[in-house]
Design brief:
By secondary structure, the chain is α+β, with helices and mostly antiparallel strands. A hairpin with a 2-residue loop joins strand 4 and strand 5. It is elongated, with a radius of gyration of 15 Å.
């Protein structure tokens, strides 16, 4: 789904995240040769808001954001940066409204 474009946009434009991973942010899977550290994001579910007579006006998307680094503490630090970047985020990113 297009929501992945927004996730990438938010993470890659966050100064704290980009300082660590640059643009090494991948949907679903990273190449085995990817340099550490990096982030992989995966959509795990979509829950529509049902209506009686039309398409869902609001979908809730669920994601996993996986953070990889050479050390455990590096992965934890990156995960905290990613959470801070995404937590309670609203607005329009890559033409996707969140």
């Amino acid at each position: 789904m297009e929501i992945g474009l927004a996730i990438y946009n938010i993470l890659s434009n966050d100064a704290n995240v980009a300082a660590v991973v640059g643009t090494r942010i991948y949907p679903n899977v990273a190449k085995q040769t990817s340099d550490f550290p990096f982030i992989v994001y995966q959509m795990t579910g979509v829950t529509p808001t049902d209506t009686k007579d039309g398409v869902s006006p609001l979908d809730t998307n669920t994601f996993n954001v996986l953070c990889f680094a050479e050390t455990y503490s590096g992965a934890v630090s990156l995960a905290q940066r990613a959470r801070n970047a995404l937590d309670r985020k609203t607005g329009t990113y890559s033409t996707i409204k969140i």
